[in-house]
Amino acid sequence: MLNWEEITKSLDEKGFATTEPVLNPDQCNELIAMYSDDRRFRSHIIMERFRFGLGEYKYFSHPLPEIVQHLRSDFYSGLAKIATSWNQRFGQSSSYPEKLEYYLHACHAKGQTKPTPLMLKYQPGGYNCLHQDVYGEMVFPFQCTVLLSPKSAYEGGEFLLVEQRPRAQSRGEAIVCEQGEVIIFPVRDRPVHGNRGYYRTILRHGVSTIRSGERYTLGIIFHDAK
Fold first, then answer.
1. What are the 10-residue block averages of pLDDT along the chain, 226 residues in total?
2. Domain of 156?
3. Does residue 140 form part of some domain?
4. Within 13 Å of residue 150, how many CA atoms lie on the same side as its CB?
5. Domain count along the chain
């Protein structure tokens, strides 16, 4: 059972949150084993070709694996309320539906019908440049990364989150998690309270260089893509 009060507090104060393990080692290994089965995926991206970094990732096709669908639905339900409250701090009146299926209906109405959950694989020397995962007009403000590999399987590979505040130098976080744990973070921005109320900061995320071993992660993005 996740502590959503603590998650909300961490997102508000630090711009990210981590959880206890939501997957056990057997579940993590089950997902890692899927990576070699191309029938489960709609596309395969070699990051170096697009100067995204050095590594690769695959987007799942429909139907999503049951465990991925379960995580996507459960985390969306917890994050929708936080997302609505962040909209209010930005001065926006729009709210997010309680259930993922209703939000995806809105995505599909905008032509965003391709599933976005993905798996990423890094080997020695691999890394991911700082970026944002925005795939169309509909953008849910949070996403999640689930670490699938045990920490003993690789060295390096810290999750990076960099925040740019107005008229200030950027601030970075290097976040380390254990197998099965989740990092929750903003897709592109967040509200920060200042002397004159809330202001918007811009965030990008990436992965530091893998020094040895292999690192697999599951990425859960809640808006679908065009």
1. 95 97 98 98 98 98 98 98 96 94 98 98 98 97 98 98 94 97 98 93 98 98 97
2. 4-221
3. yes
4. 7
5. 1
